[in-house]
TrEMBL record:
Keyword NAD: yes
BP GO annotations: fatty acid beta-oxidation
Family the entry assigns: Belongs to the enoyl-CoA hydratase/isomerase family.
Protein name per UniProt: 3-hydroxyacyl-CoA dehydrogenase
Catalytic activity: (3S)-3-hydroxybutanoyl-CoA = (3R)-3-hydroxybutanoyl-CoA; a (3S)-3-hydroxyacyl-CoA = a (2E)-enoyl-CoA + H2O; a 4-saturated-(3S)-3-hydroxyacyl-CoA = a (3E)-enoyl-CoA + H2O; a (3E)-enoyl-CoA = a 4-saturated (2E)-enoyl-CoA
A single cellular component GO annotation: peroxisome
Superkingdom to which the source organism belongs: Eukaryota
Predominant localisation class: other
Domain 3-hydroxyacyl-CoA dehydrogenase C-terminal: 490-583
Keywords annotated in UniProt: Fatty acid metabolism, Isomerase, Lipid metabolism, Lyase, Multifunctional enzyme, NAD, Oxidoreductase, Peroxisome
Amino acid sequence: MKGSTVLEVGADGVGVITIINPPLNLLTYDVLLSLKESIQEAVEMDDVKALVIIGANGKFSAGFDVTAFGGSQERKDKKELGFMSVQFVTDTLEAARKPLVAAIDGPAFGGGLEIALACHARIATSNTQLGLPELQYGIIPGLGGTQRLPRLVGLPKALEMMLMSKRVSGKVAQSLCLVDAIAPADGLLSAARCWALDILECRKPWIVSLYKTDKLEPLAEARLILKLARIKMRKQAPNLTHPLVCIDVVEEGIVSGPRSALWKEAEALHELRLSYTCRSLVHFFFAKNETSKIPGISDTGLLPRKLSKIAVVGGGLMGSGIATVFILSNYRVILKEVNKDYLLAGIGRVKANLQSRVNKGKMTQEKLKTSLSLLKGVLDYDSFTDVDLVIEAVVEDVSLKQQIFTDLEKYCPQHSILASNTSTIDLDLIGKATKSHDRIIGAHFFSPAHVMPFLEIVRTRRTSLQVIVDLLDVGKKIKKTSIVVGNCTGFAVSRLFFPYTQTPMLLVEHGADLYRIDQAITNFGMPMGPFRMVDLVGFGVANATGIQFLENFPDRTYKSNLISVMKEDKREGESTCKGFYMYDDKHNASPDPDIVKFVEKARTMSHVMVDKKLRNLSDGDIVEMIFFPVVNEACRILAEGVVVKASDLDIASVMSMGFPSYRGGILFWANSLGSRYICSKLEDWSKQYGKIFKPCAYLTECASKGTSL
């Protein structure tokens, strides 16, 4: 039965308990109860000498069903809370009077691995994956993993695996002594049976992981390791507490003993399951899984066509990054440029991208050569006669893009998909002069394209379903999380975040400190503040996108003169080592004392007076004034049907712009504050500072009804 375990006894006297909960044999309360009953039954059977736990269909267990996390059900009974970890895993499984071996193939994550850790030995296949990823969901391991893992692999490696949710292969796990032996998949069960009988006959050691101490460092050294881990976590994730809780629980076991620490682990897990961080990360997990479910597309039964030859027009930073993405996924790629120098530079960027992966140990020099052999540089369209997909990746110039699409229609075969990497320009405008509207689509990558894991697929009203299905399949093959959005200026992502750069300009011209704004936003959890981000993308791109929004949404844009004033001083951002910040030769940013004069000049040109209230904003006020207009734009995007699901905007905000995943995404975070609160704040600001803050009809309606966004 699904969601249970089955006990079978062989002629050799080994009882094999199989976890059955397809497809990944996830753990649930019922599965664990069934496992407990199977172990108790086997221990009492006279014809059972030893036990093996294995997962059905070559998958041990991918851990607890994530729906069990982020719950609101409070269990105050500490005995009930610790039942799984103490009374079952420790006092039933690990304390079994008969040797118990885990036979691990496929995934062994979270609670699945913790079950294996409590067994008296572990046999795995070389390609199995093992890990404790609970911190990705805002909790800690809760079936004794905080205690057993350090005792098997040592404190430093255990902390790395838990705090960084790092997975290891079976082969690596053996080198760490996390598993005892490696066996081929077809011989795994047989090897585990033999090992269990060898333990019974004292030919192999009977190891109780919870009380193993030889891998633990001396107390003083252990405390130093834990102290350094805390410092690292506070620096890497200053807004998160659960990594520190995990370290505390590990330390409890070292100082006070593992039994005591198991109860502390159980109590900590209970508290963390009810936290906002856990709810946010669980929401993000499910929202990410839902991106592939698109009504009217994924449910049509339409199969993707095989695309094997890709062309990229433009070898700049974006074009070369996109070319890199495809050759890394074994696609043949043509890279087109307008002259030899530009082409050599583009190919050079691709080589540099690959070499960077080699330097970081992510690929071999041999793989680099193989990948580069898939790339062909050209100066004309003669090689485009058999391409399956073309991605235009030139500068944001409407007339240039229109000319390119006219050329593509002329040279490319009828079946080929014509995609643009534009971040803001309406696709109908780009393809205006063509007759190929059914195969024009947006393929908006994010810089650097070979690193960022997100792809925004933009469909027009005339884009065929087949083309959308094809591009979704390509996104999966190049390992991107994709969302499908409607066509408009800025689409979903650029449009969502255009207030993120415009509102700070307003605040600064009205007296707020530029560097305080960036600091408050990074303290909130963004990878960088809005001014540092503008420096990174460059003033040219910022101006081009700003013009698009000014022309299309004049009622809610703020026309700042600040960038124009700075461009007069030959500042273009990080690329010129001077923008809102100054940059050294290693691209380290530092505040520029000269920025004050540019702000004053822009303020004078805009006829703006300094507002004392804005000069003295708290960090919380800054975050709200920057992000509430973003929430407002998200509401417009939802109301207009640019995205199908609100959760797609949460995924987009996190994976494209770096909104902290532990806040769940832009709309999940907004819902935690409430539509009424956000709407009232925007209303107040719009009266003082203009229409950029005016709440839209959708937000106003949600606020009046007190409903979720």
